[in-house]
Amino acid sequence: MIGYVTLGTNDRERGAKFYDAVCGALGVGRMMENDEFIAWGAPGGGAGIGLTKPFDGNPASVGNGVMVALEAKDEEQVRQLHAVALANGGTCEGPPGPRGEGFCAAYFRDPDGNKLNAFIMGAG
Question: CATH says 4-54+66-121 is which class?
Answer without folding.
Answer: alpha beta
